[in-house]
Specification:
Helix content: 10-25%
Pfam families: CBS, NTP_transferase
Protein name: CBS domain-containing protein
Number of domains: 2
Order of helices and strands: EHEEHEHEEHEEEHEHEHEEHEEEEHEEH
Oligomer: single chain
CATH class of the largest domain: Alpha Beta
Organism: Mariprofundus erugo
CATH architecture of the largest domain: Alpha-Beta Complex
Strand content: 25-35%
CATH superfamily of the largest domain: Spore Coat Polysaccharide Biosynthesis Protein SpsA, Chain A
CATH topology of the largest domain: Spore Coat Polysaccharide Biosynthesis Protein SpsA, Chain A
Keywords: CBS domain
Structural class: alpha/beta
Number of helices: 10
Strand order of the largest sheet: 11-10-7-12-17-14-18
Length: about 350
């Protein structure tokens, strides 16, 4: 069982501080207790992200987003019982309590059974023309542009590798031979790399129609090849599984302020003036998870973008979900973004 000292929190702890603790601790769960150390609930990364989607105030107490009825183990539970519970419910940690409900410890899947390499296929979109980064991309494809001394696509692959992912497929088109020459089979990176070679641009969705039907993992992560992020992709997979959807889109909060007084009218009648209002929206972050059996919905040899697949699945009454990012994230799509990416080492290390 794990040492709990750093993950035992009071129900009054502000959500923002809870986020900091979760980011600092490898266990990715907080146990909310009363003064007698009785378990009141648990808080995970997923609980907070779902709260953010509902408009959660980060200054609110963590009790507003905790799971008040968490799964628990008795102090006499066996290793096998713990593993069956965790695997049956797709969770990675369970608090251990005594007959009085007091926390005694925390059992984790990794402590009970060593977690192996993640077999999920990662598809990285690396076929774009990079027009907004001309002239830099006239002689080299955008994914091979160096960020802090290393091609940005290599930064992306290495971050996945650090988290246990080993299977990659790169969608290539523009100057594809340069990307294939750099990454090859993936052997020198300790991974397996295959290629989806587009004869013509197929869009972020159309390229997936080139995937072989045999040997696909149950779930597939798809990501644009010009994104730098500190996201823990295992958390994204856990969120997707826990919410029971067939597809999940990562989203980011985008806010802006109108620099003028906005006049509200009704026809020719004045209503009021709102000075410099702020607006906030969730925008597509270019990172997705799909159940692999949904790829059959993508038309073959046609330009098709992944947001179109979400709309199609929604029209088919299938459950599609969104995952709110709170990590470092940068879309390296312009000269200014490229400059900033080279100044920010956190997302590219």
């Amino acid at each position: 069982m794990k040492d709990l000292k750093n993950i035992l929190v009071s129900p009054d702890l502000p959500v923002l501080e809870a986020i900091r603790v979760l980011d600092r601790e490898a266990l990715q769960i907080l146990l909310v207790i009363d003064q007698q150390q009785r378990l009141l609930g648990t808080v995970t990364d997923g609980d907070i992200r779902r709260g953010i989607l509902r408009g959660l105030d980060l200054s609110a107490p963590v009790s507003v987003c905790m799971n008040c009825s968490p799964l628990t183990l008795s102090e006499n539970a066996s290793r096998d019982q713990a593993l069956v519970l965790m695997r049956g419910r797709s969770i990675h940690a369970v608090p251990v309590i005594n007959n009085d409900g007091c926390v005694l410890g925390l059992e984790t899947e990794t402590s009970l059974f060593r977690q192996g390499i993640n077999d999920t296929l990662v598809v990285l979109m690396a076929g774009g023309l990079g027009m907004r980064l001309r002239p830099l991309t006239e002689s080299i494809p955008k994914p091979l542009l160096e960020v802090n001394g290393k091609p940005m696509l290599q930064h992306i692959i290495e971050r996945f590798v650090e988290q246990g992912f080993r299977r990659f497929s790169l969608s290539v088109n523009y100057k594809a031979e340069m990307i294939v020459e750099h990454f090859g089979s993936g052997e020198r990176f300790g991974v397996e790399i295959s290629y989806l070679e587009e004869d013509k641009p197929l869009g972020t969705g159309g390229a997936l129609s080139l995937l072989p039907q045999e040997g696909l993992s149950e779930q597939i992560i798809v990501m644009n090849g010009d994104l730098l992020t500190t996201l823990n992709f295992r958390q994204l997979l856990d969120f997707h599984t826990a919410n029971g959807g067939v597809a999940t889109m990562a989203v980011r909060d985008y806010s802006f302020r109108v620099p003028y007084g906005v006049v509200n009218i009704d026809g020719e009648s004045f209503i009021d003036v709102v000075e410099k209002p702020a607006h906030s929206y969730f925008v597509n972050a270019g990172i997705y998870v799909f159940n692999s059996d949904q790829i059959q919905n993508i038309p073959e040899d046609q330009f098709f973008d992944l947001p179109d697949l979400f709309s199609l699945l929604k029209a088919q009454k299938k459950k599609v979900t969104v995952f709110p990012l709170r990590e470092e994230w940068r879309d390296v799509g312009s000269h200014e973004d490229y400059k900033l990416a080279n100044q920010n080492k956190e997302a590219s290390e």
